Here is the input.
Amino acid sequence: MPSSRPAAAVRPKNAKPIGAVTRGTTNPNRLRRMDRWLCGPRGALLRTAADPLVIDLGYGASPTTAVELHHRVSRLRPDVEVIGVEIEPDRVLRAKPLERPGLSFRQGGFEIPVPGRRPAVVRAFNVLRQYAESEYGAHWDTVRERLAPGGLFIDGTCDEIGRRATWVAVEPGGPVSLSISLRFGAFERPSDVAERLPKALIHHNVSGERVHTYLQALDRCWAESAAVAPFGNRQRWLSMCRMMRKAGWPVQDGPARWRLGEITVGWAAVRPD
Here is the structure.
């Protein structure tokens, strides 16, 4: 797990962006599950931020997800500023015509190219999964150092159309939770999401590791909730979440989030050994 570090020095002018060009595939509404979580359980963060700056880091070949993010968070905080950051210059140039008040695009990487400012939120979805496992910790640290006090870095992964998604909430002091969000009908067992775990966890889904034990517990409670399946998958998911909490798992939030096919658990329950 990344350790706390002192605030980073100002990035030298013309320094090379930190990171590598990724595949950049994206689709409309692909990140809606995470966006509604940010505007829901984490909405107070933006509502109270002194500088409501949100960074969409590595938005990809199309700026669609950054545009959608701005639309959603601006309903929560009208004066929010969303900056889409991409390491590939051509992607930034293609996005420029979509700029508008509160939404802009610039070249950069994990160093977060906003001199003199500290973002309230940084989102990097389907970015770190394309890096080696040995690299993610250093990039987490780089971003954490640049967050505003109480800020949030969201490192997530989802399938091509956003039906299966997971994300880790990382605060300046380190990771605090793992969220899983699934569309009903897009899975047979909750552990079907395993291939979409964030880089910090995907290689630890093996016997003896906490995240593997967690996914197995989800599957077990899902199976034991089959009795309510005739009332629909939503009721079955709610039953599963209640069973998980009763079994002692540090399940966060409540039925209002669970009914969306979402479950969030404290990081200590799934962190790698």
The two ends are 9 Å apart (CA to CA).
